[in-house]
Amino acid sequence: MEITELPAPVFCGVDWAETHHDVALVDASGKQLAKQRIGDDAAGFGQLMDLLTEHGDRKESPIPVAIETSRGLLVAALRATGRPVYSINPLAVARYRDRHSVARKKSDAIDAAALANILRVDMAAHRHLPADSELAQTIAVLARAQQDAVWDRNQAHNKLRSQLREFYPSILAAFADHRFGLFAREARTILAAAPTPTAAALLTRRQLRALLKRAGRSRGIEVEADRLLEVFRRDYLHHAPQVEAAFGQQTAALLRQLDTACANAEQLEAATSEAFDQHPDAHVITSFPGLGSLTGARVLAEIGDDRSRFANAGSLKAYAGSAPVTRASGKSCVVTSRRVKNQRLASTGYTWAFASLRGSTEARAHYDRRREAGDRHVAALRNLFNRFLGMLFFCLHHGVPYDPVKAFPNRPTPEILSAVA
């Protein structure tokens, strides 16, 4: 009986750059089989495919590729071929390079070989990029862009508010008790019409009513106009007229930035929610208390819909940063929060857990128990988020909605529920 010899495994490393990429191939023994520099274009990708095919790349047994990024056209094209693509942290590459060179030499070709060798010796210690659906990848792009837009909006708001504290206390006093503060359309509309406190004091009751209507207000316009008129005409300290006018010019520029940031966040929110509602996992995710279309889209964007991405619920919790880290050495044992995590998912988890306190008596009771046990506010919310993630992992794998009985098996008595409601 003739024994067919299996082909030796080959590993590929790609050190990417803006205009070109260095490629290295090594075999199971660590011998470098090939190296090549390719361009950052379709022709360069074709050269990479030809090089892989030349060294045994087949559809049924594709050569794995290691690269230092998870984004870009090259990564998208590699994932489209169906091969496992590993995104290696640049810090890990630097540590591996130091294992083989005490002279600390470095080049793009050396980094490409180091990436290939990482797969050769430590592939099991790294996670390849998930095989998410096209819709899940679309939601990830939109949700992350919307989250960035919200952060940009908050930054623009803080800059504007800091500027107004320098010379315009009346506008801050006028909207100090408003739910949205300077984010409110009324505040931004009035600020655009009167960028200085002197201009605000000259506004008439009729002009204020018109501005409130322009901002979209339909009720209580007369009362609100009278209140704003009284606030703007109080006695305040002022800068010299020319200095105040200069501050007004700067305020108008900052206001335009805030208006643009608000419009971007609103437009991306609508697009994100629309895409998320089309995903088959949407009904499972939004069945959890504290999750709506937008926050649910942010969760799905970070965990994806590839069910093989996380081996168990513990892996998902570690990825989200909700699972604690234990550092033990000898008689010392310290349990701390996880710092290395998906920051976007962790940020969404805080919002998710906090919002669930009002919509779920079970979640509120769990939070209160953690607080009574000595946890601070953030730690108690993190523990609640950790519990939700475990249930979310189960629900997504079984296609069932959230069940508070299974999520909180030790449910409080009706007396406790009525007390915390």
Structural description of this entry:
The chain has 421 residues and is α/β, with parallel strands linked by helices. It folds into three domains: 10-127, Ribonuclease H-like superfamily/Ribonuclease H (Nucleotidyltransferase, domain 5, 2-Layer Sandwich), CATH 3.30.420.10; 138-274; 284-420, no CATH class. Helices cover 58% and strands 9% of the residues. It contains 19 helices and seven strands. The chain has a five-stranded mixed β-sheet. β4, α2 (73-80) and β5 (85-87) form a beta-alpha-beta unit. α15 (343-359) packs across α16. The longest helix is centred in the middle third of the chain and has 37 residues, at 241-277. It is globular and about 85 Å long.
Give the SSE layout.
Blueprint: E1 10-16, E2 20-27, E3 32-39, H1 42-54, E4 65-67, H2 73-80, E5 85-87, H3 90-100, H4 108-122, H5 134-167, H6 169-174, H7 185-193, H8 197-201, H9 205-214, H10 221-232, H11 241-277, H12 282-285, H13 293-303, H14 313-320, E6 325-329, E7 332-336, H15 343-359, H16 361-372, H17 377-398, H18 404-407, H19 414-420
Parallel strand pairs: 1-4, 4-5
Antiparallel strand pairs: 1-2, 2-3, 6-7
Helix pairs in contact: 3-4, 5-11, 5-13, 7-9, 9-10, 11-13, 13-15, 14-17, 15-16, 15-17, 16-17
Summary tags:
single chain; alpha/beta; Nucleotidyltransferase, domain 5; 3 domains; five-stranded mixed sheet; two-stranded antiparallel ribbon; 7 strands; disordered N terminus
